[in-house]
């Protein structure tokens, strides 16, 4: 009896979360314990098709064999050095990012929020040094999301993330997304930066239109402001290009990326130009873990796999395939008023009558497939970029059957 009691005490369940974790999340009712490719299994051995990939993070799926080899090899060499040293994996990765993008300089951190924090600080630092200590205004967009630090939630355009923490970082304005007139009405000589997601993720998977992005570039040029692209979610192949700005052929001054960069291992990067970096002085910013050799070795392998024309074309093709099946499903279920996105970042906007049921729908669907929400009315799909068409069909069939069952009750 004593041994049984000990065994029961040591069993980890979903209830354990409620007992020991800070209640800032409300995780699913099951605990994933194994993943392979685009499939995960819970403690009971049930399998799920993963259309979330850890919120667009595990871009190569779970337990990719090449990443296992790299993490094993690098873990036998050196894991961490801090910013007292540089290291070979970081320099190789930085050089590849510079060689394939607009960028000339790279800063590594650990999360999208940290990359954005660095970008916002750098934009103000540069503008103050180059122009005036009054040039600190940042223009951002309603429903945007840039992270959870105090600076990044202040720049993000969603009050639910930024309220209740006391005074926000000042000199930040929010205007409507895809509305160039709104930007022109608030920009002035004291604007230091405009920051925009090329596809708003948490804001509902809303792509920016070309004229809007082109207009932002022109405005920044006119007012000596920096254009910052937040590609934390849209970067690293998610839209069928290495970075989404390539679709627009508009060059930013700063770009941030994270999520898929490490394929599941925490790493982020801020990319910028010599024009900006030449004003930087040693010690103005930093991070202990950022650019550590273990993270950079893994990210370099992810980069090598993703930065391939055939790979990226397959992302586009699978995105079209995903859209096609979703449209067929919607003809039968009639629950979506719009399906939008690019590549394998897809948002299905619920009709008004189903919006209040979104969490119930997601809960029901989670019996067989993992999907996300984006705001309070959009179901978001962000599967592994290596997902097969067979897995897309299987996952969407599960989604269809479970959703059909729910709405027919």
TrEMBL record:
GO BP field: L-arginine biosynthetic process; lysine biosynthetic process via diaminopimelate
Localization terms from the record: Cytoplasm
Organism field: Candidatus Tachikawaea gelatinosa
Extent of the signal sequence: none
Family: Belongs to the class-III pyridoxal-phosphate-dependent aminotransferase family. ArgD subfamily.
Catalytic activity, EC: 2.6.1.11, 2.6.1.17
Pathway assignment: Amino-acid biosynthesis; L-arginine biosynthesis; N(2)-acetyl-L-ornithine from L-glutamate: step 4/4; Amino-acid biosynthesis; L-lysine biosynthesis via DAP pathway; LL-2,6-diaminopimelate from (S)-tetrahydrodipicolinate (succinylase route): step 2/3
GO CC annotations on file: cytoplasm
Protein name in the entry: Acetylornithine/succinyldiaminopimelate aminotransferase
Pfam families: Aminotran_3
Organism placement in taxonomy: Bacteria, Pseudomonadati, Pseudomonadota, Gammaproteobacteria, Enterobacterales
Gene (name only): argD
Cofactor entry: pyridoxal 5'-phosphate
Cofactor note: Binds 1 pyridoxal phosphate per subunit.
């Amino acid at each position: 009896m004593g041994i049984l009691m000990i065994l029961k005490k040591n069993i980890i369940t979903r209830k354990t979360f409620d007992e020991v974790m800070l209640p800032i999340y409300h995780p699913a009712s099951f605990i994933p314990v194994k993943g392979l490719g685009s499939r995960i299994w819970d403690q009971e051995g049930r399998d799920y098709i993963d259309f979330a990939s850890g919120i667009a993070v595990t871009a190569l799926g779970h337990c990719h064999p090449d990443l296992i080899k790299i993490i094993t090899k690098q873990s036998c060499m050196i894991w961490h050095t801090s910013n007292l040293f540089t290291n070979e994996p970081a320099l190789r990765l930085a050089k590849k990012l510079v060689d394939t993008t607009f960028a000339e300089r790279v800063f590594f951190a650990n999360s999208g929020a940290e990359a954005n924090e660095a970008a916002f600080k750098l934009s103000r630092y540069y503008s103050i040094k180059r122009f005036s200590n009054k040039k600190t205004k940042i223009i951002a967009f309603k429903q945007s999301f840039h992270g959870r630090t105090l600076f990044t939630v202040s720049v993000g355009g969603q009050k639910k993330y930024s309220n209740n923490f006391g005074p926000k970082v000042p000199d930040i304005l929010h205007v409507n997304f895809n509305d160039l007139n709104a930007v022109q009405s608030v920009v002035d000589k004291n604007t230091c930066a405009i920051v925009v997601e090329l596809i708003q993720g948490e804001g509902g998977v809303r792509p920016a239109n070309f004229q809007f992005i082109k207009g932002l570039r022109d405005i920044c040029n006119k007012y000596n402001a920096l254009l910052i692209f937040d590609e934390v979610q849209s970067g690293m192949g998610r839209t069928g290009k290495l970075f989404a700005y390539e679709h627009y052929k508009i060059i930013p001054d700063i770009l941030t990326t994270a999520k898929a960069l490490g394929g599941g291992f925490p790493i982020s990067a801020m990319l910028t130009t010599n024009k900006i970096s030449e004003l930087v002085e040693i010690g103005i910013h930093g991070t202990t873990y950022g650019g550590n050799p273990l993270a950079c070795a893994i990210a370099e392998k992810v980069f090598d796999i993703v930065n391939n024309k055939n790979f990226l074309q397959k992302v586009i093709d699978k995105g079209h395939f995903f859209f096609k099946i979703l449209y067929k499903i919607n003809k039968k279920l009639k629950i979506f008023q719009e399906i939008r996105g690019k590549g394998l970042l897809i948002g299905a906007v619920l009709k008004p009558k189903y919006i209040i049921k979104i969490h119930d729908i997601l809960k029901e669907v989670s019996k067989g497939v993992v999907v996300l929400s984006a705001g309070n009315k959009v179901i978001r799909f962000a599967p592994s970029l290596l997902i097969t068409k067979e897995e897309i069909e299987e996952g969407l069939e599960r989604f269809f059957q479970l959703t059909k069952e729910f709405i027919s009750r």
